[in-house]
Each structure stands twice: as C-alpha cells, then as structure tokens.
Amino acid sequence: MKALIYHGPGMKTWEDVADPEIHEDTDAIIRVDTTTICGTDLHILKGDTPEVAKGRILGHEAIGTVERVGAQVKNIAAGDRVLVSCVSACGHCRYCREARFGQCLNGGGWILGYMIDGTQAEYVRIPFADNSTYLVPEGVTDEELLMLSDILPTGYEVGVLSGKVTPGDTVVIVGAGPVGLSAITGSRMYSPSHVIAVDMSDRRLEAAKAFGADITINNTREDPLAIVKDLTDQLGADVVIEAVGTPATFELCTQLARPGGHIANIGVHGAPATLHLESLWIRDLTITMGLVDTFSIPTLLRLLTTKQIDAGAFITHHFKMNDIMAAYDAFQNAADTGALKVVITRQ
C-alpha cells in the first residue's frame, strides 16, 4: 500500500510499504477512505516530538471501511463504515473506566501516527477497535464526520470543558487555527458574553468571525491586553484558551486572564514556556492542560446529526491521496493558502 512516512525532522515521503496486519484479537484493519492533516503532524515534522520513530506512518484521523476484524471484536464487522478516533482505548484500565482514554494504561491513548503507524495511508490497523471506532450515522458526510476524529473533541474537551466556560463569560481564544475555531464553536454553546479571537493572520481572523467570534484581534498591530481590559472593566477574561503551542502565546494567555480566571492550554508545545509564579500565584489563576480523551464524540455526533454544529465549515481544501505532499504544502503554508482543514480522499 501507499503511505506517508516520517523520516526525521523535515523529511517525509509518500511511498510503498507493507499492508498492516492484525496483531491482537481486538484489532481491526480499516481501509482509509478519508483522512486529513493535523497541526500535531506539523509538530512531529518540526522535531517537537522526538519520540516519534523514523519510518512511522503519520496521521491519526480517518473515516474508513472495515476490511477485517480480530476474533474478539464485537461492535463492528467487515463492510461497516466507521469514524476512527484519534485516541485508542482499551476500555477497562483505571483511566478508561474514568473516560480518560488519553491516559489508557494498556497501550491506548494517542498512539496512531505517534507510537504506531497512523491513518495517512491506504489501510490502517486500529487497536481496541470496539472502543476506538464509531459507526457512521445516516445524514452526515465523511468530511463533516472527519472533524469529530480530533479537532472538535479537542477544542471542546481540553478548551471549553476544562476551561469551565459558563454563560456570560468573556472567552479569549489565542490562535484561530482549526483547534482554536473548534474552541469557538464549543464556547458558543455556553452563551458567553464575548468570544474574542487573537491571531497574527487576518485570514484566520476572518474565519474566526465566521465561526462566531464577536471580536477579532491581530496582535501584530493591536494590543490584546488593552482591548480585553477595556471590555471587562479592566479585569481580564474569565477564560483564556491557548491554541497555538508557543512560549509567547502561553505567556500572553496568562496576562489576559482576570484574577480568579482560567487558562486552558490546548496547544502542543515543543519548547519550554516560563511560568511566572512570582506574579501569577496571587491572582488565583487556574491553569489546565491535557491530551484529548474523545469522550465527547457521542455528544458531538448528536449535535452534528441534528445540525447544531457545522463541521463542514472547517474544510477549505480537497486532495487525493496521491497528492498528499501537495496537501501538506497547502496546510503548512496556511497563512498564504487560507487552509483550515484539508480533506484527503482515496478516490
């Protein structure tokens, strides 16, 4: 089969590799019909996650068709159409029983395209298939459903729920990429008084407006702190969501939060960020961070099928699998191309 192979920082190829095989009775082999590229894939290619081995197939999001299943798989069968979660779950360890699937103790968590071969390929092996896939419902497209594999649960769980957004809050999202836009979508469900998007790209700020941001701030020419203070009687935001993953954006978030406020870090950081406890401790701030658990996929599926969220709005570019290198070029140069999510299809 063909697959996108990581060969070290800055190096990737679309090449022939062996088809995946079932290793455990709980595995399934999925024919990948639709996949995409995540910001985390770009972090891997930058060298931010040195634990990723050379030769790894990248990718952790897919819609596909079940080819075959292991002897213990009960919930899906050959021919079924499924959503592949970016997080795999054994279903019975301490953390899985708490719905903290990202911390699975038995070989699950975020492993696709990280610890094991991923979804940017013609076929993929899915461990713990009963707990790590969802049957495709009627009435939604593959493209819409693909957004539930990672970005929408990540923005909702790690940003909105962990940040404890409540009605009337002023919410600031720093970073208007796909996950930041997902945090805007999730925040709007809780009737905040203001949703403010901060980014350095006017094109992404235009997207943030379309997704429901009331106010947009380009921090290359505007002062986010002054604007947020003016909107909040000089207090600061109730919830600040970091959706970039750089020291500068994290430190900006700590400045934007009001005393007693909440900072929810979503961004994947590849370098240390300074935590100024000497000035933060007295402000009663809560800082949360984490890997998505994907426990919200069933909820988001209901919202998607009833048209309460518009997952299709994330999609800006389409490519075929054999053009995946061009898809990477578009996604990596989003400031120029306007790419949010690129959809890569088999045919």
Automatic annotation (TrEMBL):
Its EC number is 1.1.1.1, 1.1.1.4, 1.2.1.3. Residues 10-344 form the Enoyl reductase (ER) domain. It is an enzyme of class 1 (oxidoreductase). Its cofactor is Zn(2+). One of its GO terms (molecular function) is zinc ion binding. Keywords: Metal-binding, Oxidoreductase, Zinc. It comes from the Bacteria. Belongs to the zinc-containing alcohol dehydrogenase family. PANTHER family: NADP-DEPENDENT ISOPROPANOL DEHYDROGENASE (PTHR42813:SF4), ZINC-TYPE ALCOHOL DEHYDROGENASE-LIKE (PTHR42813). This is Alcohol dehydrogenase. It comes from Ferrimicrobium acidiphilum DSM 19497.
